[in-house]
Amino acid sequence: MTIRKIRLAGRLVGLLALAVLLALAIASPTRAQETPEPTAEPTPEDTTDEAGPSVAVSPPVRLAQVGEEFVVEVLAEDVEQLAGFAFTITYDPEQVSYQRAEELGTLLDSSDRGDVTCDDPVVDDGTVAFSCETGGQPVCAGGASGASGSGLLVRLFFNSSSAGEAKFDLVATALVSDDVEPCGQVIGDEIAHGTEPSTVMITREGHTVQEEPALVKIDAPTEPIEAGEEFAVELLVENVEHLAAFDFAISYDPELMSYERVEDAGLFLATGERQNISCPDAIATDGKLSLFCVTRVLGAYCVGAPAGASGSGLLARVFFKASGEGVAMLTLSDPTTLVLDDYSPCDLNFTVPKIPHTLQGASVELLGGDGLPWLILGPAIGVVALLVIGGGIGLSMRRRGGDAAP
């Protein structure tokens, strides 16, 4: 496998992991199609020509800690007869600061063209420009061949100052050939090439999974519910730390109640620093209601993303309508998931752990819908009772009157 293929494979793994960080960490197969596509931040265009030469920042993805000095290398790959180069590397000066360059022009030293001359780096706000060339005549005029293959152009040292994704891109790149046409010109022809950027994930001390489990519970009405009456149950979380997303399923008896709607979904998530909350429509099947909510923030806390919600609060308010009679059980079933706002460990495996928790269901007493309502049935029973009593008294009086007659 070539160096480029290895690098591209690493880039794909990193970018895929970043894109699915939280939303796909909890989405079950039955709801995958409802998950909104995340809005990715624009990234520098990768202009790599896979079949030809390139100038690349290496490695494509790596980690560094806040306050740590780290290294990135600029490489030339798959070049032929290289006699000189120039490029400018760009970066965010709010996240990293340029320190120094070492081994500038190393690949050019592998040729027989003579001494390598490099200009002093030109440092500006968020950019550093480099250029090197070899001495000697073009090949057509009897000069020696330039460097071929892949190798180091320069090793760069930076210092990190804040957590986040530090992007390094290449602009104004030039690769100069050892030959020129027509022969006689001083400078060689330019070699066509692509460029490859790099991302350094600068980490800070992250969040770990809590030791004591959180509680996810259903809070239901304690008063009996009449048939046809709408009622709400609350899905609550207690004693959770750094929550970034959740998923739950409530099971119920469809013979006793019917699902109506969900309100205030994700309300507790909004109490954290990750304010971009997404809760796709709930899915109600025969006796099971499923809902998930995510904070639509790419990245984890340890690489600069905001913190999730901690404490206790409302995950969602679910409305049902009573249709039967009896004690209706409401239970939490799989999948019910709480997702941390961080990678754990904070490395390039991009592992997003789940928060341990216990489940607590609830019950609701339903009075049913058979017979006349008590507001009508009660007076009717009273009238019947009066008639019976009145009739009995009258009959008794007539009998007494008959006994007294001569």
- Overall body shape: elongated
Cα gyration radius (Å)? 37 Å
Indicate the CATH topology of the largest domain.
Answer: Immunoglobulin-like
What's the structural domain tally? 2
Strand content: 35-45%
The tally of helices reads: 3
Largest sheet: 11 strands, mixed
Residue stretches low in confidence (pLDDT < 50, at least 5 long) are 1-49, 371-406
Q: What fraction, in percent, of the residue positions are helical?
A: 10-25%
Architecture of the largest domain, according to CATH? Sandwich
CATH C-level label of the largest domain: Mainly Beta
* Element-by-element helix/strand order: HHEEEEEEEEEEEEEEEEEEEEEH
Q: Let me know the number of strands.
A: 21
Q: How far is the first residue's CA from the last residue's CA?
A: 130 Å
Question: Which descriptors apply to this entry?
Answer:
406 residues, Immunoglobulin-like, 3 helices, disordered N terminus
